[in-house]
Amino acid sequence: MAKAAAKTATTGTLRRPALAGREVLAGGARLSVLPPAERMSLRAPAASVAALSRALGLDLPVKPKTSASSGARTALWLGPDEWLVIDQTGDPLADCAKVKALHSAVGISHRNVAISASGPGAEATLAAGCPQDLSLQTFPVGACSRTILGKVEIVILRTAEDAFRVECWRSFSDYVLDFLTEAAGDAAG
Amino acid sequence: MTQPFRISGAGRLTPARSLRFTFDGKHLSGVSGDTLASALLANGVHLTGRSFKYHRPRGILSAGAEEPNALVGVERDSARRTPNVRATVQELYDGLTAVSQNRWPSLSFDVGAMNDLASPMFSAGFYYKTFMWPKAAWKKVYEPKIRAAAGLGVAPDQPDPDHYASRFAHCDVLVVGGGAAGIAAALAAAESGVRVILADEQAEFGGALRYEAGAKIDGTDGWAWAQQSVAKLAAMDNVRLLPRTTAFGYYAQNFVGLVERVTDHVARPDRHAARERLWQVRAKRVVLATGAIERHMVFADNDRPGVMLASAARAYLNHYGVAVGRTVGVYTANDSAYYAALDLKKAGVNVAAIVDLRDNPSGPAVEEARALGIEVNHGRAVTKVGGKLRVSSMTIEPKGGGGGRTVAIDALLTSSGWTPSVHLFSQSCGKVAFDEATKRFLPGTYAQDCVSVGACNGTDGLEATVAEAFDAGEKAAREAGGTRAKAPPPLTPPLKGEGDSEAFTPPSPLRGGVRGGGSGHPVVDASESWAGGMLGSGPGAGAGTTVKAFIDFQNDVTAKDIRQAVHEGMRSIEHVKRFTTNGMATDQGKTSNMHGLAIAAETLGKPIPAVGLTTFRAPYTPVTFGSIVGHAKGKLFDPTRRTPIHPWAERQGAVFEDVGQWKRAWYFPRAGEDMHAAVNRECVTVRQAAGLFDASTLGKIEVVGPDAAKFMELLYTNPWEKLDAGRCRYGIMLREDGFIYDDGVVGRLAPDRFHVTTTTGGAARVMNMMEDYLQTEFPHLNVWLTSISEQWAVIAVQGPKSRETIAPLVEGIDLSDAAFPHMSVREGKICGVPTRLFRMSFTGDRGFEVNVPADYGEAVWEALWAEGQKHGACAYGTEAMHVLRAEKGYIIVGQDTDGTVTPADASVDWAIGKKKKDFVGIRGLSRPDLVAAGRKQLVGLKTRDPKIVLEEGAQIVGDPKQPIPMKMIGHVTSSYWSENCGHSIALALVVDGKSRLGDTLHVPMPDGTVEVEVTGMVFYDPKGERLNG
């Protein structure tokens, strides 16, 4: 049976991401549920940042609301000692496992669901429920923040002038997609 | 077009663009650009409603947001019936259906009008002193009758089918009000490159320029200048224009709430379009350019339809091309009403007479009136009017009294002066100051980063207004950090020829001001026209008179009511307001407050500022519930959280229950089973074979760092330092006061890593409390907390066949009792995916909790289900889970505890590390009351009749024969039928419960008293042998 299960795993049907492949075109934005990614919650004091940066292959950002990317890996500053590391291909947990410097690395790949909001109405779509100033001048490409959308917590990363990555916890993804869908209908560009 | 009062060539609307509408079923036509009010007036309709209390016929008073009278219902369909719509702000659309309110059987013949005759009964404060006896009659007779008789529109009785949008916005400068001042401020601010939002409640920007015919700015007609300027602003990408948008509330730190009406003016709104949009704006600077509101004159029967504000009549003529009558009278105490008379006269309307309270009015307006041949009566007053459904005459008397004469009119335009709109300024916590010279309250001390400009700041005259506003806009932009300032704008401030353009430099005749001084009316004393006038009751309506001279039309408050309130002992304006309800209607006294205050001050013999001013509260004008609710309705009212295994449970026909935001499988009924049967079967199956339970909603926190164990020692009562990696412990968390806060099984994955579980409901607050203590009390600890509640799906596999069920799927973990004893945790694989496998039990039987990354949850469940089927396993829901744990006396925090239960009360004090010197709550535990005798303790209850299942929450007494009220000594916290035990079981908090074991107590219920025996908390397998069974 274990064999059979393993076989099933390799066919990929074991993994059933929330809202897999959902895509909505509404008003001024295209909303796409993004494929699964490796995610890690990284906590560390300032003294460990250099060692962790080396291990991760990018400079962990230390300025509020900024992110750093290298290849398919992005580190988002969420707090003075907190980063969300998202990776499409590699394994940031494994990279940090070697680091002796003080830190906490916890795998949260399945905790979050990512939705991309793009198009001329993307900013207004988010602004329906997010009280932050999302204008390009205060929230440029690469800016990120842990914030709220309506009644739930989200993390946003501006990936382009007219595109955001919205991360939320798995069970809130229905709400977030529904909220963004309704909001996009009122955000025609 | 049959609109007898539409004047050809007047106004700015295009007559060809005609629209149809109905009022009380009568088919009428209007013109695109009309408001409902202007269209009604074009058709000669003044009578639009009946008043709140006296059912007096009422007409259109104003042409704006301050309208207290012309409130109608607007109906699109059976679900879209909006009551109390101000006809003066409702834009006309083709097919609009409007109905009058508060009348029966018809608007012109209203039975309720007998209230008017019985008005002595309904005078100020009547509901405080009339109908007080007999007491019972108030609720059954008086109140329902009064409520039915008074009131305005009827609330819709169907769900609102519209949807409402919301938007957060940030800007450097928010300009509220799009009149000349607001536009000038926005232009100045926008030119510097900063982000500007300009909002105005009207459909078109321009404010008072709408009616100030002849005003010239920048060499062009004022209205045209406004439209050109707005077009220019619209073309700038740093400017957002919000017409049809009311700034209704000014909150802390320049947070302003605005509501934009998106479709209320559209004949056939797009089904997908939001009806309204709530804007929540955070502005670095706010410029308030909210203007001023004209007051009416207070005299007998001043509420008759056809009696209206002078500026309104001017707006209907100059913007909408509508004459409000054929023969109009004017009654004023200042200059501004003269311009209405002049404009009407020039448009061919007969102006019967101007009645001016002032003894020697002079100045250009007065002279022009005389020159046009208008009769000007100075030192005289209108003391009463004739007509009921429409004014038919006015009686002119010397203001000292004696010798009146009656003049036939069909409209009477009145003005007693202008009240600066300091509503938002006041809401911003700014303090107003009374300007003695002009008898008005003006912005005094500012509390926030805002500035008032123009009429709302008491600034008189268009030139001064535009200059002040432009400077303020520029300054606000600079202060907001307008670093991206462009080159000096082509439009420069209006004053003193500075700059390279004559923009804003008004032609010299304009110097003198506006309201009273448009360019067509040169050399006007601006201070007189803006600030002049009078407050309070006019001649014939003063002290000692009993006439109905209204000050608050919407709440039917007269000058006499205010005086009566003072005579009955009210001294503070706040008391006068509540006693008379002056200013308490939905118009919030925009036209009445100053009159009421002046009359109260006069009656009290005190100066106005000594009597005070009532508070201005949000919203400035009524705001729909829909716009406040916004997206938060239906499925967006609150998030609905579902576990990764939810789809499987749904396919199995599970019944779900709401647990906070979660949907949890409650039970899994099979064909023909009711809840009782399903739960009984599930409970028995788990103990006889095995059961699968979705425990994914449990809170989970990963505690990581070299000081993880130290942190756990401080947050939980239990000892953790010596817990080996790979082992688990049931942990209890207290609050500082010593009461149980949460509990859960904690596994130590590594010396520096704990996998903590919390209750489902406690997930967020436990995380918050831990973070709070870590950051404030224990910041020296090197440990970090990460919520992993949703990282892991949790499948509890419980029962004697649980090991057989999981074994074939697990790799890399020795499942033998020796290698993997009860209360252990291992990391390995199941179905080829990573797992954190816990050996633990919330049923008392052998059990496991399979944690897998969430996306694998459903597939792993299916695999376990398939294995379980071979052993007769079932899926069980939260109800069976509750029963099974209660059979074992396992508590549920929040059900068997209520925030006043200590570990000892709940018999879980074994979980307190006896040698520990510190943990949250340790001092609380030694408080005298927490160690005293007589505490309520958790015990088991068995009913003498085993079939009776007690009600949770039922009270417990010792002696059922004692007199009522009985002394209650406890209550039932959990109660179920236990199929496994063959009798009902219950847990209860009972005073000194542990010393009553074996005693008989009683549970009085409506249909008899239930006899119960106090027992221990464990009903099933008291020796705990089944954990390894």
TrEMBL record, chain A:
Gene Ontology molecular function: any one: sarcosine oxidase activity
UniProt superkingdom: Bacteria
Cited InterPro entries: SoxG, SoxG_het, TrmE/GcvT-like
Position of the signal peptide: none
Any Pfam family matching the protein: SoxG
Record-level GO BP terms: sarcosine catabolic process
Alphabetized NCBIfam families for the sequence: soxG
Protein known as: Sarcosine oxidase subunit gamma
UniProtKB/TrEMBL annotation, chain B:
Domain of life of the native organism: Bacteria
Keywords: Oxidoreductase
Limits of the SoxA A3 domain: 548-628
Gene Ontology molecular-function annotations: sarcosine oxidase activity
InterPro entries, sorted: 2Fe-2S-bd_N (IPR042204), BFD-like_2Fe2S-bd_dom_sf (IPR041854), FAD/NAD-bd_sf (IPR036188), GcvT/YgfZ/DmdA (IPR028896), GcvT/YgfZ_C (IPR029043), GcvT_C (IPR013977), GCVT_N (IPR006222), Sarcosine_oxidase_asu (IPR006277)
Cleavable signal peptide: none
Transferase in keyword set: no
Chain residue ranges for the region called Disordered: 476-520
Alphabetical list of Pfam families matching this protein: FAD_oxidored, Fer2_4, GCV_T, GCV_T_C, SO_alpha_A3
Residue stretches making up the Aminomethyltransferase C-terminal domain: 936-1021
GO terms classed as biological process: tetrahydrofolate metabolic process
Record domain GCVT N-terminal: where: 645-916
PANTHER family, A to Z: AMINOMETHYLTRANSFERASE, AMINOMETHYLTRANSFERASE, MITOCHONDRIAL
NCBIfam families membership: soxA
Similarity comment: family membership: Belongs to the GcvT family.
Protein name, per record: Sarcosine oxidase subunit alpha
Lineage: Bacteria, Pseudomonadati, Pseudomonadota, Alphaproteobacteria, Hyphomicrobiales
